[in-house]
Amino acid sequence: xxxxxxxxxxxxxxxxxxxxxxxxxxxxxxxxxxxxxxxxxxxxxxxxxxxxxxxxxxxxxxxxxxxxxxxxxxxxxxxxxxxxxxxxxxxxxxxxxxxxxxxxxxxxxxxxxxxxxxxxxxxxxxxxxxxxxxxxxxxxxxxxxxxxxxxxxxxxxxxxxxxxxxxxxxxxxxxxxxxxxxxxxxxxxxxxxxxxxxxxxxxxxxxxxxxxxxxxxxxxxxxxxxxxxxxxxxxxxxxxxxxxxxxxxxxxxxxxxxxxxxxxxxxxxxxxxxxxxxxxxxxxxxxxxxxxxxxxxxxxxxxxxxxxxxxxxxxxxxxxxxxxxxxxxxxxxxxxxxxxxxxxxxxxxxxxxxxxxxxxxxxxxxxxxxxxxxxxxxxxxxxxxxxxxxxxxxxxxxxxxxxxxxxxxxxxxxxxxxxxxxxxxxxxxxxxxxxxxxxxxxxxxxxxxxxxxxxxxxxxxxxxxxxxxxxxxxxxxxxxxxxxxxxxxxxxxxxxxxxxxxxxxxxxxxxxxxxxxxxxxxxxxxxxxxxxxxxxxxxxxxxxxxxxxxxxxxxxxxxxxxxxxxxxxxxxxxxxxxxxxxxxxxxxxxxxxxxxxx
Length: 598
Hints:
The chain has two domains: 361 residues, Rhopdopsin 7-helix transmembrane proteins, CATH 1.20.1070; 204 residues, no CATH class. The relative contact order is 0.15. It is α+β, with helices and mostly antiparallel strands. The longest helix is centred in the last third of the chain and has 44 residues.
C-alpha cells in the first residue's frame, strides 16, 4: 500500500503546508474583523397614518391602488394623526364627520428612509430583507386588550428609479393573523403608559432587487365579529427592517469567488489520484496478500468516497451563484442558500463519523455505509426535521412573503417542536461522535505499546504517522466545535426576533434593540474560511501517495515487523498474521486494524 500524502510527506513540507493553512485562517478572520462591516443593519420606521378617502387600498391592480409618501410633493397621503386630538370625543366627532372608519385608516411604510432630506434607494447588495412589526398600545381603562390575535391586511409593492412616482407594482397582498402577546405590570396600569408587546413577524424577501419598497397596512374589522375590536388603543406601529450590509455581501461574495476554484481544483486532483492508485483507468484488479505480495485496490474506499462527497458539498456551497442576484430577480436565493448549507452540514457530519470509524479496532466491516447506521440516524433525523421546517417557513414564503409559521400559537408550537427535536438529534450525534473520537484516541494510544519492540526505522515511521494523525484529529475536533457554534449563532441570531428573546426589547416609546454583532463578521468569515481550509487539508493530505517507499522500508518488511511484534505479545495467536486489506487507504489504518493486544 502506498499510503496517503499525510503519511508520506516529509516533515519539512508538512510544516510548510500547516504554516500556509494557519496564515490563511488568520487572514480569513482579519478580513471579517478589519475589512467587512457588521453582517446586518437594522432600521426602524414609524408608520405614517393616512386616511384612505378614495378607498385606494380596496382597489385591485397596480397603479393608483397604493398610498405613498415620497416624493413628498406628489404624495397622495391624507395625514390622520391621532396625537392631534386631545380627547376621544374630539376624535369620534371628527371621524363621524369625515366618515373615517378602521378599514380606511392606512399605516404606510416606505423603504428606505430619506437621509439629510435626500431620498435613498435600496441596494441589490443588501441580499435579503427581514421585517417585523412593533405595536405601541396605550393602556386605557375603558378600552381593554383581551384579544390574543391581531388581524393584518397588507400590500407590498416596489418601484424603481426609472418608474414614475405613482408607478408602484404589487408584489404581494395578504391577510394574516398574528399572535399578540402583551402584558403590563400592575403598577404601570396608568393611562398614558404602554403595554409591553412582543414583536410580530411581518414579511421576508430572499432578494432585494428593487430600488424602493412600499407597505400599506390596515387593521380590518368585520360586522358581527370581534376581530380587531379588543386589541386596545393603538397609538403607533413601527416597522423593524433588517437587511444584510452591502459591504459584508461584497466580502462574502469575494470569498466565494476565491474559494470556489481552489476547492474545485483540489477535488479534481484528489479524485484523479484515487482513480490512478485504484487502477480503475487501466483495468487492474485487486490481489490478496499471499506470501507477502502487495495488494492493489480494486475500487476507492468508503472514506475516499466520503471525502469526495465532502469536497463536492463544499464546492456547491462555494459556488458564487448569488452574484447573479445583482442582475436578475432571484427571490429563491435565500431558500436555495439554506438548502446548500444544510447539504454541507449533513455531509460534514457524516464524514466525521466515517473518518473516526475507519480508525477503530473491532470486528465490524467498516467499508460500507450500513456499518454506521446507528450514528447516521441522528444526522438523518435532524436533517429531515430542519428540512420540514425550511419548507414550512421559507418554502411557503416564496409564494407569500407575509407567511410566518410563528404567527399563531399552534404554528409556534410546531416550529419550536421541530427545532427542539432537531437539537435533540444533533445532541445525540455529538455524544456519539465524542465517544468515537475518544475510542480512536484510546486506540492510537494502545497501539503505541507495539512501538518500543519494533525496528528503529519502523518505530520512527509509525511515531510520525501517529503524531500527524493526532494533529489532524485535533483539528477535526476544533472544526466540529466551531461549526456547532456557527450553526447556533447564525440560527439563534436570525430567529431571536421571531422568538422575542431578550429583555431589552421595550416599546414604551416605540424603541427597539439591535442584536450584538460586533465580532460577528470576523466569526462568520473565519468559520467559512476554516471549512474551506479543513476540506482543502483533507483533500491534500488524504490523497493516495505515489511514493512506494519511506525510509527505505518495504511494505513486506513492515508486515513482517508488525507480525513479529504481535507474536511477541501473544504467541498463541501466531496464525493471525497480518497483511493490509485492499480497502485500507493508509498505513495508520492498516496498523490500527491489527488485532487488539490483550
